[in-house]
Amino acid sequence: xxAVTPSLTTELASPEAKITGIFTYPIKSxxxxxxxxxxxxxxxxxxxxxxVVVNSKGRACTQRVEPKLALVEVExxxxxFLEHWKPTTDSFMVLKAPGMExxxxxxxxxxxxxxxxxxxxxxxxxxxxxxxxxxxxxxYLGKPSKLVRFNTASEVRNVDPNYVEGQQQxxxxxxxxxxxASQESLDALNKLLEEPIPMNRFRxxxxxxxxxxxxxxxxxxxxxxxxxxxxVKLCARCxxxxxxxxxxxxxxxxxxxxxxxxxxxxxxxxxxxKNKVYFGQLTVWNWKDSSAxxxxxxxxxxxxxxxxxxxxxxxxxxx
Length: 319
What we know:
319 residues, mainly beta, 4 helices, seven-stranded mixed barrel
């Protein structure tokens, strides 16, 4: 039986939504930073997931197994989000966590290399942030740990070529540079929950508002301001959204409710992975089609979101 061609519709050039939240997460699984604007890079927003905490075997630590990472606050200098800013030896990332003294991590220094760092199916060398950072995370998590930074000098981590054509790369993100979610989707979900949850459970990079609930499921070709994005696939959610980001305690929601209304069985009954639940759209920036002008490659709060093509239903979108 031949493959079915997805049904795509082309929309008129009128905004479907606007950006109301911009977030970057410098250290994988630690708290994000809410921003009024952020520079776009081919790897995501600047600084996004450039660091990861690893265990004694070099494997990435995430909230799936270390929920305490949710309480680690990350601060960067405000000027770090200007497009052409370059750090000096006096530029620091500052980390704070309950019961810990603040940790300062220099953004511009000579690095030692750690071999065999593993994030999912990728393994390669990374830059070690040093003994002080290792001791800080080891003490906080109660087990040997290191803080490492993506080795941009030698390493390349491509997104899954089965979903994206061309050279699209990431640092330590799970799979893709950007996650888009809408406020309306969260509002619709919260109406079904006994206790509403904030959007930080889902850790989006781009929060939009003004569309229908779950409209982002269908977005294929997207323009945000003058920048072109491509909707790659529905975001299948792991257990991280069940971690309360204020207490680092696991619960059963929102996964329990999502299983009833947003599972593969509900949204994609003719496809595999019926027990996965979905929230948000994974996207890439078509950076090769963009040219810097005006204020450069910068997304800002209030930027309009245009949808050029969309799927007719979630069952036709990739997942």
